[in-house]
Design brief:
Oligomer: single chain
Structural class: mainly beta
Number of domains: 1
Radius of gyration: 16 Å
Number of helices: 2
Largest sheet: 5 strands, antiparallel
Length: 79
């Protein structure tokens, strides 16, 4: 792979050696792969669904932060 960029190599490869952990969760009947960033927050990495409409929903777009908490009603909320 060739990568053409004006950024310094250190900037492009920053954080590459850090190990990342991913977790699959259920949110509103949809399976999402998220990366926890704290005990209460996670970032959506991937949507696991066969329904094309789920991919068009901006609530579930990759990169979006969601707040995780144990509540009595929904269990999880979006930020």
């Amino acid at each position: 792979m060739i990568l053409y960029t004006v950024l310094p190599l250190e900037t492009v490869l920053e954080g590459l050696e850090q190990e990342r952990s991913f977790v699959d969760i259920q949110l509103q009947g949809l399976t999402l792969t998220v990366e926890p960033i704290s005990m209460e927050e996670a970032v959506i990495v991937r949507i696991i669904s066969t329904d094309p409409l789920h991919y068009l929903n901006p609530q579930f777009s990759p990169g979006r932060k969601i707040r995780l908490f144990k509540g009595f009603s929904s269990g999880m909320t979006m930020l």
